[in-house]
Amino acid sequence: MLAQLPPALQNLKLPLRLRLWDGHEFNLGPEPSVTIVVKDPTVVSSLTHPTLDSLGEAFVEGKLELEGSITEVIRVCDELSHALIDDDEGSRPVRSIHDKATDAAAISYHYDLSNEFYQLWLDQDMAYSCGYFETGSESIDQAQQDKFRHLCRKLRLQPGEYLLDVGCGWGGLARFAAREFGVKVFGITLSKEQLALARERVKAEGLEGQVDLQLLDYRDLPQDGRFDKVVSVGMFEHVGHANLEEYCKVLFGAVREGGLVMNHGITAKHTDGRPVGRGAGEFIERYVFPNGELPHLAMMTAEISEVGLEVVDVESLRLHYARTLDHWSERLEDNLEAAARMVPEQALRIWRLYLAGCAYAFARGWINLHQILAVKPHADGSHELPWTREDIYR
Q: Domain span at residue 31?
């Protein structure tokens, strides 16, 4: 029976079993931990050149099934891809069109899926961004509260200050900053589903007098320097390389002289922003984040600097995001039956691959996460930041 397999697959030594539509099985190595169930005969030929994009597409479209833990599935499929194709073969920098209508549609596609679905696997405040693990053993709820506090401390928030939250999501950070640091918050999002639930939670906590959340494009923000501080979490990934300059100019215009701007977001491995992971980036672009473009740290800091902001602190939280995504993936896998009642089958397949795959990608260093703190200096170049970071960790 082995002769029925393409030659490229016959000499592999992977913990992988192939089960064909007719019931025949082929072990590609000893003690298989993952089984690819081929339901469509056309998939076999594509297995000789298996990008993570093509494997993911076949799973999403129901042409193959995957048996084994989702974490192990991702690892073994990457080994299969690595054995048969060159790293990042043919990948090119992604360049997408970004205007208000296109960006609003992309955000709606991703974030308006179902609030209840996100609640299944996110923390209690629904922070859909990298947590902060002081020891690595924290729960996802604790890690997200610690992330909020870490951001607020870096921004040196003081009672009575006015904070702009760009891409406020379900409002967890906005409520935390208002409640714990006594600031007034103006938050914006392009997701109607997020905004509705975020406003409900603001009202439930009695924070209407401090927290104002609106459906607004960042390009429509006031440019009169009215905000003392600005925080942007998981936002610049949606802006697009071509619009980073405008995005940074908007943040510069929104904050007062002496004010701080915090950009927390995913960054690319390569300086030109091209996808990595033998097709993983293409899969995410097509199925998860339409029009998403990751800037490299060098690109992002350059754009921030060119508009007149001064970068004063940079921190990588790559492994923190790997741990965060492990938590999310495990929680989704533990609630698959409930999830299947909330979203279409294809959407659930996409998200299972996406969460586990991103955890793997961050752990392997295919992508990174950086917090970039910048200040808008006074005309004479001065600012009020402390001499050291000591106050952040007290």
A: 2-84
